[in-house]
Amino acid sequence: MELWFSESYTPDVKLSIRVDRQLYSGESDLQRIDVFESKEFGRILVLDGSVMLTEKDEFIYHEMLVHVPMAVHPNVNKVLVIGAGDGGAVRELAKYPEIEQIDLVENDRQVIQVSREYLPKVSSALEDDRLYIFYEDGLKFVRGRKEEYDLIIVDSTDPFGPGEGLFTKEFYDNCYKALKEDGIMVNQHESPFYETDATACMRAHKRIVESFPVSRVYQAHIPTYPSGHWLFGFASKKYHPIHDLDGEKWSERGIETKYYTPRLHEGAFCLPAYVEKLLRKVEIR
User: Fold this and answer.
1) Per residue in 16-46, pLDDT tens?
2) Nearest by Cα to 120 from 35, 60, 40, 27
């Protein structure tokens, strides 16, 4: 008998992956957590029925979430990561020796526990000496912070359920306050393709534009995310993601990546016409 995992994108569309076995299944206080083993994508982390990552393509998401802002900001010492209990964003940040402190805020302790046990390739940097883990709500954590971080990475789940508060105007305003005068915030911005996802994408973009003087959107192709076309948000108090990119300096670091390059960085901000049209609808201040 074949075992398949399926995630529904719309009432008429779903992604199905044949899996060899289920490695873990459990319920935390916040959500259902599953880990599957598959031939095509390796291990798969699923939260409340939605694919969070697969071992085969997670590098795309995590590299674009981390290296884009790191190639722009000239002096990142302290970073706040909200969500990201799987450890993938921390793994990429750990490649930068100049970073002195990484604060990871994850509201579900069980996600970190499961990732450490079943996703060692992703969670490998969760033991880094510069990492401090806070098991609490990201919205509440950032509320009292003032000009503390050079970079904030919002690696949230979808804007429903446990991650809903990380897509509000209040949250983005508080992130702005928590950043230093030249700070950058990046976030996962959903897919623009299916109607429900596109609506969530527009809503988030509108709120970020209202909170930050610089707000741009960039993209990547991630096969196991809805439609494969995924967006990220880049918001800053000072830096422009293209004009302030120092690709030569970043390349000199010698950081090994499988997806990100400075040349790709520039191209990622060149969006398809239909996405530009979606974003323009909410960019009027």
Assistant:
1) 999 999 999 999 999 999 999 999 999 999 9
2) 35
Strand 214-221, strand 179-188: pairing: unpaired
**pLDDT tens, position by position, 131-159:** 999 999 998 999 989 999 999 999 976 54
Q: Which residues are catalytic?
A: 155
- How far is Cα 73 from Cα 75, in angstroms, rounded to an integer? 6
Closest CA to 283 of 226, 201, 221, 220: 201
Question: pTM for this one?
Answer: 0.94
CA–CA distances in Å: residue 246 to residues 46, 188, 239, 261, 285 = 36, 23, 11, 11, 30
The mean predicted confidence, pLDDT, of the chain is 94
